[in-house]
TrEMBL record:
InterPro entries according to UniProt: Dimeric_a/b-barrel (IPR011008), Tscrpt_reg_AsnC/Lrp_C (IPR019887)
One Pfam family linked to the record: AsnC_trans_reg
Residue stretches making up the Transcription regulator AsnC/Lrp ligand binding domain: 27-96
Domain of life: Archaea
Name under which the protein is recorded: Transcriptional regulator, AsnC family
Organism (species): Natronobacterium haloterrestre (Halobiforma haloterrestris)
Higher taxonomy: Archaea, Methanobacteriati, Methanobacteriota, Stenosarchaea group, Halobacteria
Length: 97
């Protein structure tokens, strides 16, 4: 089980049990106008990304990410996803169930 603190960002986590559970997260991605379709394949190809879809609403793409640790989720988002040309903003939601 993981505990997160902070408002909108993960600052720390505590692993209570030694299990093989994966951390599951949803990443909302805003893109530059006209870039969503091209970025979709790039996002789907990133390590730890299980699925990604173009969506209607405040964000352009939603990605589902699974990783062994919260750090791995944050690494995927901050180092890989946000580095893609055309990604303007991301919001990360860690699943609590």
């Amino acid at each position: 089980m993981y505990h997160t603190t902070g408002s909108g960002k993960v600052f720390s986590y505590v692993r209570e049990y030694h299990t093989l559970e994966m951390v599951h997260a949803f990443i909302m991605v805003k893109t530059t106008a006209g870039k969503s379709e091209g970025l979709l394949a790039d996002i789907r190809g990133l390590e730890n990304v299980a699925e990604a879809h173009i969506v209607a609403g405040n964000y352009d793409i939603i990605a589902e990410v699974n990783a062994p640790e919260v750090y791995d989720i944050l690494e995927t988002v901050s180092s890989s996803m946000q580095a893609l040309d055309g990604v303007t903003d991301t919001k990360t939601y860690i699943a609590m169930d």
